[in-house]
Fold this protein.
Amino acid sequence: MAIMKRWLLVLLTALGALSLGGCGYNDFQRLDEASKSAWSEVLNQYQRRADLVPNIVATVKGEANFEQETLTKVIEARAKATSIQVTPETLNNPEAFNRFQQAQGELSGALSRLMVVAEQYPNLKANQAFRDLRVTLEGTENRITVARNRYIQTVQEYNVLARSFPTNITAKVFSYDPKPTFSVQNEAQISTPPTVDFGAPKK
């Protein structure tokens, strides 16, 4: 009798596993972890950019009569972007996610304007430290784009699973709500790296 109960338990466990696998449960776990991993890389690259800003600001401050308003906007945008607390719950909170997007977009815009204004200062353009920082910033913006695109792809897979039948039933049972992704408007705003034109200034 004990042996029969044991085999019945094994059978029920196997059937349960097959059922969960067939309804997309395991896929939800896999894609949820994949999206978290991809999002961590997005945050990593945003932090890398934020860490560059103090050095860029310090270098630019060395240029006499540099436009203070442009510099101030970069400093304020960085402060705002780094002040937003990002937690795992942010991925499931469209409002918090959008606030984070907007802050990062503002920093992108401020850095872009800074680089354009820097074109008007020959001494700054000739500064090796500034040139090195510019190249590093450009590379970081590219890494941000790659990381963000990977996140978008994983979230797309997750959201398709959450909305498709019959896995949408599993999503409702286990509260697997669709995850927010970069909106078209904000994506267009922050996906473009700062404009860096180091050719001869227009006369």
Observations:
- Residues 141 and 192 are 8 Å apart (CA to CA).
- The helical segments are 2-22, 25-61, 68-83, 94-118, 122-126, 128-163, 167-173, 184-190.
